[in-house]
Amino acid sequence: MTRGRRLVVVWRVTEACDLDCAYCEFRRSRRGPRHSASAATALTFGRVLGEWQAATGREVLLSWLGGEPLRWGPVWAVSRELRQAHGLSLSVTTNGTELSQAGRRQQLVEDFAEVTLSVDGDAAAHEAVRGAGRHAALRAVIEDLRDRKAALGHGPVLRVNTVLRHSNLTALDALGSELAAWGVEELTFNALGGAPDDAYYAAEHLRPADLDWLAQHFDSLRAQLAAQGLRVRGSQRYVRRLEYTARGWRWPVADCAPGDRLWFVDEQARLSPCRFTSAEYGVPLAALTSLEALGEVPARLAAARRQRLTPACADCHSPQYFGKFALEGA
Ligand SMILES: C[S@@+](CC[C@H](N)C(=O)[O-])C[C@H]1O[C@@H](n2cnc3c(N)ncnc32)[C@H](O)[C@@H]1O
Ligand code: SF4
Asked: 2-315: which CATH architecture?
């Protein structure tokens, strides 16, 4: 299996969520319909992905996203089946509430290659977003995952994702030190996104001066936290993308090599190059049931993109494209 060319399939399996994070489009209090994937679709597509992995020798990492993916009913059974019967590697981004049960944590350690837990800062900052008691509970979950992983001798990469906001940016090094002490191995970050007319976004979005600070401190922060055992993922290019957003500058991308390394699947079973283009370029999974069809995905997405560039491509915000997960500073 060639990990360097692995294919990451990010699947937003549900729009439902149990928490009410003020900044999030999936927060519990938001009105409107919520879709979820069907277990049958996940198993069918997972089987073809397994065949594709075996035929190409390229590892497939299937990464569950939401809403809250661990609250998607079939997630545990589907994950086990896809790993054991079809050899897929699994990843999940979660708020961790479903991991209060020891049995769930054990299955996570046994079945998953990566887990990303969301931490919004120190106890006060995290609980202001996610609710009272959630910081200590999440810390206990992470420390237990660390211990179970050590006991088993293998287990998922323990990663935290955090949302950078105007009021918490310069506390990033303190957050990193705290996470390293819990046993977290990797840290990724997003900038707060949202609509300008949203009060939370208006108060907390990153300003150009915040990005100047981040660009200046990124390399030293990464070195400082590496010395404590925490890898900070990301790149100066990614920081520059965040700066463009803060300044209101657009960053058009002529060719992102769509479908080359990343496929995004939404809860309505449409596969696209990223989460911003499901409606325009989405290919129904029902049309992707054979190895031949999977092999044609990059060409098919590229052709769709050549035919009509979406507004999203005229100001690309794909974190993966800009190196959110990079391990080098370039
Ligand atoms: C949408 S959540 C879904 C997974 C899971 N429910 C969780 O909280 O980790 C995925 C990540 O996006 C982040 N996020 C949510 N809304 C955001 C926003 N408006 N701007 C930036 N990041 C956001 C969350 O903090 C979380 O780390
Ligand atoms: S837990 Fe995740 S999906 Fe749910 S509201 Fe918070 S950030 Fe959004």
From this structure: Alpha-Beta Barrel (3.20)
